[in-house]
Write a structure and sequence with these properties.
single chain; 353 residues; 2 domains; three-stranded antiparallel sheet; 35% helix
């Protein structure tokens, strides 16, 4: 039976059981159907969007919400619709963008963002576990695994049978949607054979958020997009009051009348391992501590209701870093606290005790 993990973070209230299935169950419509609608409707026109929403109950309850969850559209009543694929307004060749969009944009549900990119992690699990033909049984087993095991690419194939019957039935429901997604982006064919060379290419593309144009025969890359990373840092700066999470102090550079905080936004689950730009997948650190954190020489632990910084034994004692060993850290409001699953991943997969 997978270990039950209880999280208090607002962003993952839907993943209380710690099962990978819970991060992939939120889409209600086939991706191929969403693509078809997206191509036919002018989502730049508010009147058209309202007519689309009112046309059928399913449009408002399932199709349109799924487009928002995928980060394809940002639309609120009385506001102008905005297509937000990769931060650009796009309409032409939409199929080239939507098919791999989940590898890059954060996966939204219930207004929140997961700390990891679920479909990217799924594709890594398929590739790195040498699956050549993805049967429904294999997919169900992947969905039955604890999230932390999938993030670690530890696929044993022995969890489904240990689950309660009601959860077993629940896990089967999104299988057809997930298979539709994988066939739509050409990772598997209609016979469920995995195109491993192509899968390897898109996994490499998804390691950094820099896609501009994609289809099965053409790839273009650009540098790391400024907006997502800048927003990530700015949001963390506000939450942490421009203070390093571990030092609990501001480091300010004054340039004339302007002040600049010399702090950096650090991903807890690295982006190249499937981490997202969720606030709960980040902490604000000074440059030196960020370097140590990314290199696995520093981590944070959650115990007895508080976070503590932990130094690696590989760091020689006798330096200023000693003060950060088992240091109790400042309190962060619940909805912004580091994701405990992300912390567990960093402790086990990045940190070098």
């Amino acid at each position: 039976m997978p270990k039950k993990i209880t999280y208090f973070n607002k962003s993952i209230t839907k993943i209380e059981r710690g099962i990978f299935f819970d991060s992939l169950k939120h889409l209600k419509v086939n991706l191929s159907t969403l693509m078809n609608h997206f191509q036919k409707i002018d989502f730049y026109d508010t009147v058209v969007v309202k007519k689309y929403l009112d046309k059928t109950p399913n449009n408002r309850k399932a199709k349109f919400p799924d487009m928002k969850k995928l980060g394809l559209i940002d639309y609120k009543e009385q506001e102008k619709p905005l297509v937000t694929i990769f931060g650009q307004k796009l309409k032409e060749n939409i199929e080239d963008y939507i098919t791999l969009g989940l590898l890059v944009v954060n996966y939204y549900y219930e207004g929140n963002i997961s700390s990891f990119r679920s479909y990217y992690v799924l594709l890594r699990a398929i590739y790195e576990n040498n699956i050549n033909k993805l049967s429904q049984t294999q997919l169900i087993e992947i969905l039955s695994h604890p999230i932390i095991e999938i993030l670690k690419n530890n696929f044993t194939g022995h969890y489904y049978n240990s689950l309660p019957n009601e959860i077993k039935e629940e896990i089967k429901r999104p299988v057809s949607y997930i298979i539709n997604y994988l066939t739509t982006i050409h990772v598997i064919d209609k016979n469920l054979n995995v195109d491993r060379p192509f899968l390897k290419e898109i996994i490499e593309l998804g390691r950094v958020p820099l896609l501009i144009s994609i289809n099965k025969h053409n790839y273009q890359k650009a540098g790391r997009p400024g907006k997502e990373q800048v927003d990530f840092r700015n949001n963390l700066s506000k939450i942490y009051n421009k203070k390093c999470f571990i030092r609990n102090e501001q480091i300010i550079l004054k340039e004339g009348l302007e002040e600049k905080a010399l702090l950096e936004a650090s991903h807890i689950i690295p982006y190249n391992k499937g981490g997202s730009f969720s606030i709960n997948n980040g902490i604000l650190l000074s440059y030196d501590l960020h370097k140590l954190f990314d290199d696995g020489l520093l981590t944070i632990e959650y115990k007895s209701g508080r976070f503590y910084s932990i130094l690696s034994s590989k760091i020689q004692k006798g330096s200023y870093l000693d003060s950060f060993s088992d240091k109790k850290l400042s309190f962060i409001p619940n909805q912004y606290t580091p994701n405990l699953l992300a912390i567990e991943y960093h402790n086990k997969e990045v940190f070098k005790p």
